[in-house]
Write a structure and sequence with these properties.
Layout lengths: L13 H9 L3 H7 L4 H7 L2 H12 L15 H11 L5 H21 L13 H11 L5 H9 L23 E5 L2 E7 L2 H14 L7 E7 L5 E5 L5 E4 L3 H4 L2 E3 L20 H14 L4 E5 L2 E5 L8 E6 L2 E9 L13 E11 L4 E3 L2 E3 L2 E12 L2 E9 L7 E2 L6 E9 L4 E13 L2 E2 L4 E10 L7
Antiparallel strand pairs: 1-2, 2-3, 3-4, 4-5, 5-6, 7-8, 9-10, 10-11, 11-17, 12-13, 14-15, 14-16, 14-18, 18-19, 18-20
Helix pairs in contact: 4-5, 6-8, 6-11, 7-9
Length: about 450
């Protein structure tokens, strides 16, 4: 039985060759182009490089890293490779992906933050920071700043009010009169804040730089440039130089190995986890009046509990507060802020078969546990001095408070006592509304 002679590459049609080359990587396509002129012409087809730019860089038009138009997609791809030639390409793509996801989420949910994001820093600017602070930045952090040089603060604070949105990219929380809103420092801000903290801490940690801060409090995040870990300062930051790691240590790899494409420091992991939580709705925007900000209080189980009793829904969750935690104090070692959101279902409240159009909170009961042991049992009128009146279709009543916990994990659960109608005009007897247990846990990632 005679066999067919093998088909030479020269006999492959242009369409077949295009299909084959489209399955290759850009580097492989460039290598194929070296075989002969015919292959070079095929491998140089701009529709092929349009595909590469779309798949790897998410580009829909041929632009360079600064956003300037290029003559072709092939030229655009070359401009990107040249601009980041000093870094592993896989790391560059990973960092671009995280920034694209952040900006995409902001565009659809919180566009006010986009103007605060600075254009990417240059290699010269990054080198100047290293020279000024005598540090060597981990490559993932360098690439993060190549894409975006932190934030220009967009909120103004007067003596009486915050006049604009809280635009911190990382977000925060509030309780009582305490407000946290964390933003990413630009390079010049890193130099300024790091020098100030070096003075306060007496330069005991020369490899640490300040990368993120809260606009209204002393909450700060420090990057260990040598090990690649990110730390949050505690209550004892100034007096004892106490900090807590923000990312699991075991995830930080090959920080200063320039040959490895699997580099990941805490800054990159921190950003990836943050955008994952935003995309999945684990954390969301909070709107209070005309003020909007990213709230770090979890909105999804298991970190957020939800219970509905007699038509009253209560959602509850907590966030760890490192800046008020005291690792040297056994009785109040960890501090947590918690948020309670309550609302009345559209059909109103139902008590003993009767329907009411409103109900008003009168009493609260909290059981606070640490390691399953009850450490506090609280009863009292109102919540933060208020007696919220709930009506169908109205926005959630939200209030925040805080509690220490000497050992994690802990939990809070309890109930509210409501009166049908209004306290001044009751329509029935009191009824209890469940607040389902929600956890007080030390998180793997601290924000």
């Amino acid at each position: 039985m005679s066999s067919k002679p093998p088909i030479g590459l020269d006999s492959i049609s242009a369409l077949a060759f295009h299909i084959i080359v489209s399955k290759l990587t850009p580097c492989e396509a460039a290598a194929v182009a070296c075989l002969n002129k015919r292959f070079k012409d095929w491998a140089s087809d701009d529709s092929l490089w349009s595909l590469f730019c779309s798949q790897q860089l998410g580009l829909s038009s041929p632009v360079d890293p600064l956003g300037y138009p290029c003559a072709s997609f092939k030229a655009a791809y070359g401009a990107w490779r040249e601009a980041y030639s000093m870094y592993p390409w896989s790391l560059v793509l990973r960092v671009k992906n995280v920034w694209d996801r952040i900006k995409n989420w902001l565009s659809g949910n919180f566009p006010e933050v986009l103007p605060t994001l600075r254009k990417g820093a240059s290699e010269a600017e990054l080198n100047e920071l290293e020279k000024s602070l005598k540090v060597k930045l981990p490559p993932p952090t360098r690439v993060l700043y190549r894409f975006c040089d932190g934030q220009e603060l967009c909120s103004d604070v007067s003596s009486t009010t915050v006049s604009r949105n809280l635009c911190g990219l990382i977000g925060g929380y509030s309780y009582y009169n305490y407000l946290v809103n964390v933003y990413l420092l630009p390079l010049n801000g890193i130099i300024k804040e790091t020098r100030e903290m070096a003075r306060l801490l007496k330069s005991t940690r020369p490899n640490y730089i300040v990368t993120a801060v809260s606009d209204y409090t002393e909450k700060m995040f420090f990057l260990d440039c040598e090990a690649g870990q990110l730390y949050a300062g505690t209550k004892n930051l100034i007096t004892r130089r106490e900090m807590m790691p923000c990312v699991p240590n075991e995830l930080i790899t090959t920080v200063h190995d320039s040959r490895s494409g699997s580099q990941q420091d805490a800054m990159l992991l921190w950003f990836e986890e943050h955008v994952r939580r935003l995309e999945n709705g684990i954390i969301k925007l909070r709107e209070e009046g005309n003020l909007r900000s990213i709230s770090l209080f979890p909105e999804e189980p298991p970190l957020c509990s939800v219970a509905t009793t007699c038509g009253v829904q209560v959602r509850a969750s907590a966030v760890f507060v490192p800046e008020f935690s005291d690792l040297m104090q056994e009785a109040e070692k960890y501090m947590f802020a918690y948020s309670i959101r309550m609302s009345l279902k559209p059909e109103g409240c139902f008590v003993h078969g009767m329907s009411f159009e409103s109900c008003q909170l009168y009493w609260r009961h909290w059981i606070i546990k640490s390691n399953d042991n009850v450490v506090d049992d609280v009863n009292g009128e109102a919540v933060i001095g208020q007696f919220p009146l709930l009506r169908p279709g109205k926005k959630e009543f939200v209030y925040e408070s805080c509690t220490p916990c000497h050992a994690a994990p802990g939990s809070i659960e309890g109930s509210f006592t409501f009166i049908p109608g209004r306290l001044a005009d009751p329509k029935g007897g009191p009824f209890e509304v469940e607040v389902a247990k929600f956890p007080l846990v030390l998180p793997d990632y601290i924000f």
